[in-house]
Amino acid sequence: MSEVALKDAGVREAEVISRSAVLRRLRLNDKIFHGLTRAAALAVLALLSGVIIALILGAAPALGTFGIGFLFDQSWNPVTEQFGALAPIYGTLVTSAIAMLIAVPVGLMIAFFLTELCPMALRRPIGIAIELLAGIPSIIYGIWGLFVFAPFLQSYVQPFLIDLFGSVPVLSTLFAGPPYGIGMLTAGLILAIMVLPFVTSISRDVFDAVPPVLKEAAYGVGCTTWEVFRHVVLPFTRVGVIGGCMLGLGRALGETMAVTFVIGNAHHVSASLFAPGTTISASIANEFTEAVGDLYTSSLIALGLILFFITFIVLSIARYMLLRLQQRAG
Question: Which of 105, 149, 152, 289 counts the highest number of beta carbons within 10 A?
């Protein structure tokens, strides 16, 4: 009996030792995983800090030379080394606004059509076609916009808009001037096509997440399709929709090649949407390789710093809006 007891005690001790070893190994793995995740998070912060510091140091000579007037001066003359960021800032904001004004309502309507109204046989092909738009390289959009879309606008759309709004007080200024084909309106339309897949895909996914019982109840009390979309689907998915719109806006603000092809690359501010203009990204892409002086290079880096802060402000506003919506929802 004593031998059996000793054997049982030995087995239990071996089990305890084995279990302790397993627990130590699990704790070690957990510590390693915790350290790796923390290092990844800190690496992101370090990269972001490095980018900000590099931009500030690079932009310091230009900002020190021109001061706050750099933001409000539209002159851009490398010969006399007079630089201002007003024209690129204006072009960036105007083209992005045009893109979002077109892409957001169209994208929401397409997403609702795919989730509620589209026949089942067509949902997948149309959804794949929309997602393929997001995979087309931006330079392809630029080439297509320059050689196909811009001539079409110049020949048909822009003359029609000039004749249509020629006597309307405000619109006559927005749609004035010769029909160049290229310009801020063309760039905004190209951006709208590029942004559309992002808004549509995210909106479709969040619309699919709406509980069917909510929509069925609304239809049951006599709501129309528009009323279901307006009072049931959009309120339930507003956080996801805003997130998709902000993602599209970020793409529009930073797009470079497609805009460079069709905006005209002119450093001046014009009230007409038909006039050539420029954006921050297009200016940097066009002129960075030609910047021979330190002040010229610093001015281009300052444009990058301004674009960084514009993006940061837009994302901050989006986060604030989402926070308010979540607080209101309880």
Answer: 149
